[in-house]
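Predict structure. Chain length: 68.
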Amino acid sequence: MYIYEYERIINDLSGYNLFGGTKYNNDAYKQVISERAKNGWRYVGFIPAVQRGTGHIEEMDLVFEKNI
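Prediction complete.
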């Protein structure tokens, strides 16, 4: 049987230009996934939690599973 946990990640808006629009940066997910893996969790995907009308994902939930 698998159990699932979710961890919220917030993407930071880093700038705007007339040609490329907004840009979101996020390196926090790397540390979260690595720490979870050390504790036996497996990363299985993400779910957009907060999304702008333009399609930019501001917040996402990382999904982890563990076999118990």
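Summary: The radius of gyration is 14 Å.
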